[in-house]
Design goal:
The chain contains six helices and eleven strands. With 297 residues, it is an alpha+beta fold. It has one domain (25-296): Deoxyribonuclease I, Chain A, CATH 3.60.10. Helix 4 links the parallel strand 7 and strand 8 (190-195). The chain is globular, with a radius of gyration of 21 Å. The protein starts with a helix and ends with a strand.
Length: 297
């Protein structure tokens, strides 16, 4: 009788756990936006954007809230950071590291919580484009998009400019990120987004280091039919706003599936017509990029 009671007690404990495991989420979707928000003080760079930067930053934050984007990476979020956060309502937001010259300009807002957050400065920069005046680099976080499902996220702002020192610094930066991924990913899926200051048509490009490491560019997958542009070929660079999804910008998204969680990009688009001022003018000199992802565990 005692043995029977023990067996029934064990079953009573295990049954709810079994039912919970049986109905655990095994697939889902989320979207990801990356946007260089042009938050430098006008004395350094007006970015060719009409209007007041504080007002424009308020409008950016309001649109982030209205779009309810799952994950948003921002670059150049320097001196007008508070204006964006004042009108955004995402529940999870990184704290600012400060304006120029103290901050990295990298921030993330999301509908999902994360841990392991850190900011990493590039080991190498080139002085000619002012890249060494701020601690540019990348940020890293491990985001929980569903119970038991984690994705490692990287937000980057690469060295600008086009001379040899710039291209060497960009290559060193990609190598630095890949080294960090190798040391930390542990078989999890990874998404990298941000301002690479690089294009597939650049003769001295370094972003192909990412594809060599197993990452995919969803712009190439979904818009270019899987055909990567040739290095050194004529550039089809986008204006702002972008006339179509087929032109190329330096802002990129890369992703890689994990050992136990698959990851697939299903849609890719510029959000240039969404992030605008009331009179239709642009809010930044960069086109925001939106990628829809699906996952299966």
């Amino acid at each position: 009788m005692v043995a029977l009671f023990a067996s029934l007690s064990t079953a009573a404990v295990l049954l709810p756990l079994f039912v919970q495991a049986s109905f655990a989420q095994s697939s889902g979707t989320f979207n990801f936006l990356t946007y260089n928000v042009a938050g430098l003080p006008p004395i350094f760079n007006d970015n060719g954007v009409p209007g007041d930067k504080g007002t424009n930053s308020n409008l950016i934050g309001a649109q982030l809230a209205r779009g309810a984007y799952g994950i948003v990476h921002m670059q150049e979020d320097f001196n007008y950071h508070a204006y964006i956060y004042a009108t955004d309502n995402h529940p999870f937001r990184t704290p600012t590291t400060g304006g120029v010259p103290f901050g990295s300009g990298l921030n993330t807002v999301a509908n999902f919580d994360w841990d392991n957050f850190r900011q990493v400065k590039w080991n190498r920069c080139n002085f000619n484009s002012g890249d060494c005046l701020t601690p540019k680099g990348f940020s890293y976080m491990r985001m929980k998009i569903a119970p038991g499902v984690e994705v490692d996220l990287y937000n980057l702002h690469a060295d600008a400019g086009s001379d040899t020192g710039d291209s060497n610094a960009r290559r060193a930066g990609i190598e630095q990120i890949l080294s960090h991924i190798d040391a930390n990913a542990g078989g999890r899926p990874v998404i990298i987004g941000g301002d690479t200051n690089d294009r597939w048509t650049n003769a001295a490009r370094s972003i192909d280091l990412l594809t060599d490491a197993g990452f995919a560019d969803p712009w190439v997958e979904l818009i270019k039919g899987g055909s990567y542009p040739t290095a050194g070929s004529p550039a089809d660079a986008c204006a702002v706003p972008a006339a179509s999804n087929s032109c190329e910008v330096v802002d990129k998204v890369f992703y890689r599936a994990g050992d136990l969680v698959t990851l697939e990009a299903t849609e890719w688009s510029y959000q240039s017509s969404v992030f605008v001022q009331p009179d239709g003018n642009i809010l930044s000199d960069h086109n925001p990029i939106l990628v829809e992802f699906s996952w299966t565990s």
